[in-house]
Amino acid sequence: MFKIFRNIVFFQELSDEEINILISISTPRLLLKKEKLLEPGQSLNDLFILSSGLLRFYFDDEDGVESNLFLPSEKEATIMESPESYSDNHERQYTIEAVIESQIFLFNKAEFEEIAFQHRGIYNMYLKSFKQIIGILKLRTEQFCSTSPHSRYEEFLEARPFTSQNANRKYIANFLGITPNSLSRMTARIHKKRNERKK
Description:
By secondary structure, this protein is α+β, with helices and mostly antiparallel strands.
């Protein structure tokens, strides 16, 4: 278990003692493909981190269409929780689902936060996770406000190759705010452009 935690990029700055403390309060859980960690109407009182795999956080809009808010992979691991936990909205509408087989580690939130106040490295890491999530939301907001769908897709491919290779194209299209047909056309254009460069 120590080796797994030590290899999680987000834990790199923690001391061995802090790693062992986190291990002592963690609960491992393996999510199979399409297995749900959270469903609408349920509450999740745990924090968690993804050590391998890919998850999606989504909700159904008023027309029953799924909207993907987050697509975190092992490459963007951070301390996560239910999206409702970041606001005073008590309506439980989100689903957290494994896109591929995914290994997570759960931490009781109250216990984790108590330990964080006792160990500076864990506290700083916890604070960093909030900043990272805010940064992701800021970037997504700016992209939707100021960039074209094609630019969003190209940036996604460059920044998140693991997700682009492992996520269903329908999920990626929805995440980027474009239709699956538009995504297919963009992919074809990008491949054509890359092939022309190789000639």
